[in-house]
């Protein structure tokens, strides 16, 4: 593993104002907050259909390349793999931040690899990277109420009740992503998965 390679933090979401506050766009929200924390600004990358921000996590911390693919969710893998190649980032230094139907709202969990759980952004990343062995920061959004179609549910904005906690949870998800990059997935799991 190349010591100088940055961590690629891929916030999954859909581009455009109409999607900005959707449950499916929580990856973008987390990427925006991390960029703000490290004093980095997003700009269009010349080698990928993505907005990218670069910076270092604290003094002497890991270098981060924050990514918001500008393709739609189901094509997120293209920009992710293009940037992984450009920055020479191995899969074990890629972190996908995404919404997760199978985790209750309010819970954030870190893991490496595993299935995609029907998430088109993860499916595209795994296919493009040729591996599922990258880190994920899973932001629980819970299952849709009643018989609502999960595809509609993820493309709706967070409810008024959910929005009361959203800022705190995005902050926590950013903490988890930073912990994965600086201390590893296992450390982040021990610190955050239980709560």
Automatic annotation (TrEMBL):
<feature type="active site" description="Proton acceptor">
    <location>
        <position position="24"/>
    </location>
</feature>
<feature type="binding site">
    <location>
        <position position="72"/>
    </location>
    <ligand>
        <name>tRNA</name>
    </ligand>
</feature>
<dbReference type="GO" id="GO:0005737">
    <property type="term" value="C:cytoplasm"/>
</dbReference>
<keyword id="KW-0694">RNA-binding</keyword>
<feature type="site" description="Discriminates between blocked and unblocked aminoacyl-tRNA">
    <location>
        <position position="14"/>
    </location>
</feature>
<feature type="binding site">
    <location>
        <position position="120"/>
    </location>
    <ligand>
        <name>tRNA</name>
    </ligand>
</feature>
<dbReference type="InterPro" id="IPR018171">
    <property type="entry name" value="Pept_tRNA_hydro_CS"/>
</dbReference>
<dbReference type="GO" id="GO:0006515">
    <property type="term" value="P:protein quality control for misfolded or incompletely synthesized proteins"/>
</dbReference>
<comment type="subunit">
    <text>Monomer.</text>
</comment>
<protein>
    <recommendedName>
        <fullName>Peptidyl-tRNA hydrolase</fullName>
        <ecNumber>3.1.1.29</ecNumber>
    </recommendedName>
</protein>
<keyword id="KW-0378">Hydrolase</keyword>
<feature type="binding site">
    <location>
        <position position="74"/>
    </location>
    <ligand>
        <name>tRNA</name>
    </ligand>
</feature>
<dbReference type="GO" id="GO:0072344">
    <property type="term" value="P:rescue of stalled ribosome"/>
</dbReference>
<keyword id="KW-0963">Cytoplasm</keyword>
<keyword id="KW-0820">tRNA-binding</keyword>
<comment type="similarity">
    <text>Belongs to the PTH family.</text>
</comment>
<feature type="binding site">
    <location>
        <position position="19"/>
    </location>
    <ligand>
        <name>tRNA</name>
    </ligand>
</feature>
<dbReference type="InterPro" id="IPR001328">
    <property type="entry name" value="Pept_tRNA_hydro"/>
</dbReference>
<comment type="function">
    <text>Catalyzes the release of premature peptidyl moieties from peptidyl-tRNA molecules trapped in stalled 50S ribosomal subunits, and thus maintains levels of free tRNAs and 50S ribosomes.</text>
</comment>
<feature type="site" description="Stabilizes the basic form of H active site to accept a proton">
    <location>
        <position position="99"/>
    </location>
</feature>
<dbReference type="InterPro" id="IPR036416">
    <property type="entry name" value="Pept_tRNA_hydro_sf"/>
</dbReference>
<comment type="function">
    <text>Hydrolyzes ribosome-free peptidyl-tRNAs (with 1 or more amino acids incorporated), which drop off the ribosome during protein synthesis, or as a result of ribosome stalling.</text>
</comment>
<dbReference type="GO" id="GO:0000049">
    <property type="term" value="F:tRNA binding"/>
</dbReference>
<dbReference type="Pfam" id="PF01195">
    <property type="entry name" value="Pept_tRNA_hydro"/>
</dbReference>
<dbReference type="GO" id="GO:0004045">
    <property type="term" value="F:peptidyl-tRNA hydrolase activity"/>
</dbReference>
């Amino acid at each position: 593993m190349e010591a100088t390679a940055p961590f690629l933090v891929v916030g999954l979401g859909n581009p455009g104002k109409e999607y900005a506050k959707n449950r499916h766009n929580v990856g973008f929200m987390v990427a925006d907050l991390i960029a703000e924390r490290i004093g980095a600004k997003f700009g269009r990358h010349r080698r990928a259909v993505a907005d990218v921000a670069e910076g270092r996590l604290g003094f002497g911390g890991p270098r981060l390349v924050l990514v918001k693919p500008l393709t739609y969710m189901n094509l997120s893998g293209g920009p992710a793999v293009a940037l992984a190649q450009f920055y020479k980032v191995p899969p074990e230094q890629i972190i996908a931040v995404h919404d997760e139907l199978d985790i209750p709202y309010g819970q954030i969990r870190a893991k490496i690899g595993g299935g995609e759980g029907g998430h088109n952004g993860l499916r595209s990343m795994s296919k493009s990277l040729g591996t599922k062995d990258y880190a994920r920061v899973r932001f629980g959004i819970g299952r849709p109420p009643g018989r609502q179609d999960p595809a509609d549910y993820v493309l709706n904005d967070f409810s008024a009740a959910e929005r009361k906690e959203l800022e705190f949870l995005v902050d926590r998800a950013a903490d988890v992503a930073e912990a994965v990059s600086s201390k590893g997935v296992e450390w982040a799991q021990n610190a955050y998965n239980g709560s």
